[in-house]
Write a structure and sequence with these properties.
It is a single chain. The chain is an alpha+beta fold and 424 residues long. It folds into four domains: 136 residues, no CATH class; 79 residues, Outer membrane lipoprotein wza domain like (Outer membrane lipoprotein wza fold like, Roll); 96 residues, Outer membrane lipoprotein wza domain like (Outer membrane lipoprotein wza fold like, Roll), CATH 3.10.560; 66 residues, Outer membrane lipoprotein wza fold like (Roll). Helices cover 23% and strands 31% of the residues. The chain is built from eight helices and 21 strands. The strands form five sheets. The chain has a six-stranded mixed beta sheet, covered by helices on one side. The longest helix is centred in the C-terminal third of the chain and has 26 residues. The N terminus is likely disordered.
Length: 424
């Protein structure tokens, strides 16, 4: 009897390993884009509902000890297997042979309820036993994703997949799609409104429920929207803006964002990923039809109850300008141009970036143009954003100019006299 039990355990482990290997390879097969999701937490037997396609390990202990793997059939049943004998393999291992004596329905039962139901069945065949059931493999089913998604249609899912995961498998929401009023339909009726915007903000799992067999996810168009552009990180992609005649680049973003009733400037800034370090927060404004509403974003960031944190309206354009984060180096320089501002650097650093001064540069008269103010370079001051460094050409005294001109004339005269003498 002990030998039969040991062989039964070995055979069950072999079957379980083979099944898990097949499950692991399933994601890399022909179902492109489908991956097995990671578990957020262990499966809870009081919560997980068994359906066709699930695979379970049934364990009988007590006066009789054995176990076997079975699956929930298309009719929602599992087989009741009873060992009758064992057969030796070529390696001398005795493999138990089972007879299927019944098939009982367990669909729509939780793992815990299925355990209790199976125990009552097995007690008809054995005395003084206990029955346990554990989940080995989760079923795969289809969910239909329609509306404003990039690849609408049928998507594979598992019971541990949330709505957001399934939408990602449909390549995500389109630019015009709503992320706050997604409809999850179950058995032909509206089951829940899914708000992914709020879920990403709060992490409340009730806002992003698990999907079930045959669910339909409908992503509608946004009812209201605004445009946010400028110095924000952006959640809808970004583009590089290249300043004219410069080698400096600033990342700016422009995207369409869903507007929920009552949302204010601070809410939309959060949706856009926040402002960049080069945002000019004192010059933010809203374009509303033909009106321009100026906002000092610094006040909004400090106090969300500020009167400047106004409610947004459908069709608004929120503009966050960039500060002038450029330093210009001009004049008698090897490579004059503009360069990205870096804090705490001095004038000599930027001149070095530009390749250094030319031989006729007058460093003693070089200066910084800061707004309407000129600052001499003699003390190598720290540069600020928007500064222009100018290095002029050297100016000569009149006698130096005459000396150079005289030397040239003398050279030409000697050449002329030499040619004349040779011709005679």
């Amino acid at each position: 009897m002990k030998k039969l039990v040991l062989n039964s355990i070995i055979f069950t482990v072999f079957l379980a390993s083979s099944y898990l290997y097949a499950q692991r390879g399933e994601a890399t097969g022909s179902d492109i884009g489908f991956e097995i999701s990671g578990l957020e937490k262990p499966i809870v037997s009081e919560e997980y509902v068994l359906m066709p396609g699930d695979s379970v390990l049934i364990i009988i202990t007590g006066a009789t000890n054995y176990s076997y793997i079975t699956g929930v059939t298309f009719e929602g049943k599992v087989t009741i297997n009873v060992p009758v004998t064992s057969m030796p393999t070529a390696q001398g291992i005795y493999v138990p042979k089972y007879d299927v004596v019944a098939a009982v329905p367990i669909y729509n039962l939780t793992l815990k309820n299925a355990k209790d139901s199976l125990k009552n069945v097995f007690l008809k065949y054995f005395r003084n036993i206990d029955v346990d059931i554990t989940l080995l493999g989760m079923r795969r089913f289809t969910v239909f994703v329609v509306g404003e998604v990039k690849n609408p249609g049928m998507v594979y899912a598992r019971p541990v997949d949330r709505v957001s995961v399934v939408i990602t498998r449909a390549w995500g929401v389109t630019t015009l799609g709503s992320r706050s009023k997604i409809e999850l339909r179950r058995k032909g009726e509206l089951y829940k409104i899914v708000n992914l915007e709020e879920f990403e903000k709060t992490g409340d799992p009730l806002l992003n429920p698990y999907v079930q067999d045959g669910d339909l996810i409908l992503v509608p168009k946004m009812e209201k929207s605004i445009i946010i552009k400028g110095a924000v990180f952006g959640k809808r992609g970004y583009e590089l803006r290249v300043a004219e005649l410069t080698v400096a680049r600033e990342r700016t973003s422009e995207g369409l964002y869903e507007l929920i009733e009552g949302e204010r400037v601070s809410d939309l800034i959060t949706k856009a990923g926040g402002i960049t370090p080069w945002a000019d927060i004192a010059s933010v404004y809203i374009e509303r039809k033909k009106e321009k509403i100026n906002i000092n974003l610094a006040n909004v960031l400090v106090d969300e109850e500020s009167e400047e944190n106004i409610k947004m309206e459908n069709g608004d354009v929120l503009v966050i300008p960039s500060v002038n984060a450029i330093v210009y180096v001009q004049g008698q320089i090897v490579n004059p141009g503009s360069f990205v501002f870096q804090p705490n650097l001095m004038a000599s650093d930027y001149i070095g970036f530009a390749g250094g001064p030319l031989s006729d540069a007058s460093m003693s008269t070089a200066y910084i143009q800061r707004d309407k103010k000129k600052i001499a370079l003699k003390d190598d001051p720290i540069i600020e954003q928007g500064d222009k460094i100018f290095v002029p050409r050297q100016t000569f005294k009149f006698w130096q100019d005459y000396l150079e001109i005289g030397a040239v004339v003398a050279s030409l005269l000697i050449s002329y006299l030499t040619l004349t003498a040779l011709s005679e």
